[in-house]
Design a protein that fits this description.
This protein is an alpha/beta fold. It has 6 helices and 10 strands, in the order H-H-H-H-H-E-E-E-H-E-E-E-E-E-E-E. It has helices at about 25-55, 65-80, 85-90, 95-115, 125-175, 225-230; strands at about 185, 205-210, 215-220, 235, 245-250, 270-275, 280-290, 315-325, 330-345, 350. Helix 2 (about 65-80) runs antiparallel to helix 4.
């Protein structure tokens, strides 16, 4: 028998293969496998990109760019696949040009949104908020005005009248007859010479308070604002004159227009209060202090707290001023009685030095 090489056409085909299909070379089989891998990889990348876009908030920094993904896939496909391969033309049914256009539009939109920050609409102020703002401004303005008024009342008014009171004391002293400046030990208890008070606003005496650093205050007739607001101690016109029987009463500001009676609470029982008239030095001693209401005018009666017609033979002096120091809801009262008097022609009483 003759040995011969079998004809490939005479060999039976393997089950499931086409008899007339030409045999594929190893290169062609490898290229076909690579094409299938690329198609599978491209589909996986597109699915992951869509999932990432859906799960992540829109952001230029974090959102996968479909244009970039499609471009990379297209380049890989063109390098490994024939031109007419369906993978190079379509990716999940969408052409690369369409994917590129969508990616560019989304990227451009994100860049525009980032470059132009969103402008929030201005909220309209409600009527209630507007009222609150107006009230706040009014309270602030009122506080400033009140503060300026207090400063003016406490300090400016005192500065304004300081020169007036000094001039009043100097002017009154010049009207008096010359008298010795030395201190004398003489003390008289007989009725002192009567002092003339004059008209409203006239200066007729001076008040000396050793406890207040030897402070000297001019005394004028009347308790009107025109008198008290110039730094004077004003004489109640319906009370007796200095040195006479009855209750010689004076009023003065405590915390403005000279602060004449500011330190009234420092006075102690027995402290001397000296009044200089045209002819005499009258030395009173503090006997009592009290706080009353402004309506309690009986404190300046001839006998304090008693009816006007109550008989008396006591020669008194009463000081009245506002209380508390920074208010006027009450009145601070100082009662004193005449201890002795000294003729001006004999010298000055030792009480001016604080000696009783």
């Amino acid at each position: 028998m003759e040995n011969r090489t079998p004809n490939p056409r005479d060999v039976l085909p393997v089950s499931g293969s086409r008899p007339d299909a030409p045999a594929m070379s190893r290169r062609e089989r490898r290229r076909q496998q690579e094409n299938r891998d690329i198609s599978s990889t491209t589909s996986s990348i597109e699915v992951e990109a869509k999932d990432t876009i859906a799960a992540t908030p829109p952001s230029v920094e974090t959102m996968p760019n479909p244009s970039t993904t499609a471009t990379v896939n297209r380049r890989n496909a063109e390098e490994k696949l024939p031109f007419e391969s369906p993978v190079a033309v379509m990716v999940d049914g969408v052409s690369p040009s369409e994917i590129k256009g969508v990616g560019q539009a989304e990227a451009t939109g994100e860049a525009t949104a980032e470059s132009k920050p969103e402008t929030k609409p201005k909220k309209k102020k409600s009527l209630g908020l507007l009222v609150i703002v107006i009230l706040r401004d009014l309270c602030f303005t009122a506080g400033i005005v009140l503060g300026l008024f207090v400063f003016w009342q406490l300090y400016v008014t005192t500065w304004e009248v300081s020169g007036v009171t000094d001039a009043a004391v100097t002017s009154f002293t010049k009207t008096l007859a010359k008298a010795p400046e030395e201190y004398t030990q003489e003390r008289r208890t007989d009725p002192p010479p009567e002092a003339r008070v004059g008209a409203i606003g006239d200066t007729f005496a001076t008040l000396h308070v050793p406890r207040w650093d030897r402070m000297t205050i001019p005394v004028a007739e009347g308790t009107t604002a025109a008198v008290l607001n110039t730094g004077y101690a004003g004489h109640y016109t319906d009370t007796t004159s200095p040195g006479n029987i009855g209750n010689f009463s004076l009023a003065g500001h405590r915390r403005s227009y000279g602060n004449n009676f500011r330190r009234v609470e420092e006075l102690q029982i027995g402290d001397p209060l000296v009044v200089q008239t045209k002819d005499a030095w009258l030395v009173y001693q503090v006997t009592e202090t009290q706080i009353v209401l402004p309506s309690q005018r009986e404190v300046i009666n001839p006998v304090p707290g008693q009816p006007l017609d109550t008989p008396t033979d006591i020669r008194m002096m009463t000081l009245t001023t506002c209380h508390p120091e920074y208010g006027n809801a009450e009145r601070f009262i100082v009662h004193s009685t005449l201890s002795y008097w000294v003729p001006r022609s004999e010298g000055r009483p030792q009480a001016l030095e604080g000696k009783v």
